Amino acid sequence: MTRKWFTSIGIFACLFFLQGARSHHAAQDVPLNLRVNVVLVQLNVAVTDNKGNYVTGLRPEDFSVSEDRIQEKVSSFEESQEVGHGPMETARRERDAHDGAPAPPAVALNPGDPPAISISRVAESNLFILFDTSNYMYRSFVFAQDAITEFIRSMDDATKIAFYSYSRNLSRATTLSSDPYRVIGGVRSTVAGDDAALYNSLLLTVKDASPLRGRKAIVVFSNGPDNASSVPPEDVAELAQSTGTIIYIISTRQAEEDPICAAAFERVSRASGGKAYFARNWRQEKEAFAAIREDLVHLYTLSYYPQPNQNRGWRSIKVKLVGKDLQKYHIRTRDGYRLLPSAGGLESDTGAREAPSGTGAN
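Below the sequence we write its predicted structure tokens.
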């Protein structure tokens, strides 16, 4: 009996050993170069002086970025196409000429540990215009269309523009296009009516913008308070922050006179790094659109690969200017983001631009 028992134990041990050997061998046959997406957290930063003038000509070394008080290393640095003629840029050119140092060229990135910073002009810019066509718009509908049309014509050829309108529901009149005449056609085809569900429609617009590469911004024209949404403005603000989408809101005197509505517009735009404007007439509407256009062409775009961080929820971001000469300037950008579920159900860094596949792991 004892001999049979030992024999059985030996057989099971052999089977276990053989099964383990097969599993180990099979594991060795599986390729280990798994495909992992690498993301860059992208920040759009406006720098202004005490008079509200934009400060241009800054370099990557002028900025300090931290996430949850962890110092981050800027991996890429982009300027808009039209900057480069301000006092800071003039000083930089004079200093470089004196030192004999040419401007640093754009270089390839190593996602694991970037050896240098890629410096370039903004290559991709996506703009969504969201127009209020609710019953608030009856009196000033044509004037608003004219202001939007002029704004579209003022944008550069590198910007893709989509035009959406909303009342109770969202209407995607034209998807992203480089053809301004196509977008203007969408503006001219809109008609007014029904209640206003601004936050429902704005949330859907942010979701449309979120997967896009490059800079993305939404310009809202609203003529009054939201009276039909099921989504609170706080949800819109958080999604915009977490996806790196800038929101600008142009509203009218009617919205400004509603303190709850005006405060909500201010919160949503400021949280995303944008601004809110309250126009009392059609001239001020055009001025607000012109101010947004100026803001977009003077933004710096900084990107970084987040350092290891155990925080799986809200991550706060702090951007500062380095150097005594720069402390007098003001910075406007989003102040953080929340990790959102990826398509595979796993959490991933958001408010970010995906790097080329197969370049590394995060």
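Residues 39-122+299-354 form one domain.
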